[in-house]
Design brief:
Shape: extended
Number of strands: 7
Distance between the termini: 24 Å
Order of helices and strands: EEEEHEEHE
Helix content: 10-25%
Radius of gyration: 18 Å
């Protein structure tokens, strides 16, 4: 048995078994989606602008049911809906809109 990075479950190779080097902790919560772009450049620019203003912004890649790639700009990670709603008020002060979406993160 050997530990390996880059795998999420045990893998057998001949007489050897590789196991994940660490087990990720999964957390469920909420985040705000501020925008979704087909062009990564726009998502990167908005993410950088929000970070400059002190928001915990990040982007994720998603694919629509029509197989179109979108670059989604998101802000924060919240355990409580009230926290997310308070952040929406701040985001609106930046002349942006946002929706609350469920999210899962691995640490």
């Amino acid at each position: 048995v050997y530990m390996a990075d880059g795998i999420s479950s045990p893998v057998s190779i001949g007489t050897y078994t590789l196991i994940p080097a660490h087990k990720a902790e999964v957390k469920k919560g909420l985040t705000l989606q501020v925008a979704a772009f087909k062009d990564k450049k726009f998502a990167d620019e908005l993410t950088a602008e929000l970070k400059t203003k002190g928001y915990p912004a990040y982007s994720v890649i998603g694919t629509s049911s029509e197989n179109i790639t979108y670059y989604k700009v998101r802000v924060g990670f919240f355990q409580e809906r009230a926290e997310a709603e308070n952040m929406i008020k701040k985001i609106k002060e930046e002349n942006l809109d946002a929706i609350i979406v469920n999210t899962v993160i691995e640490e």
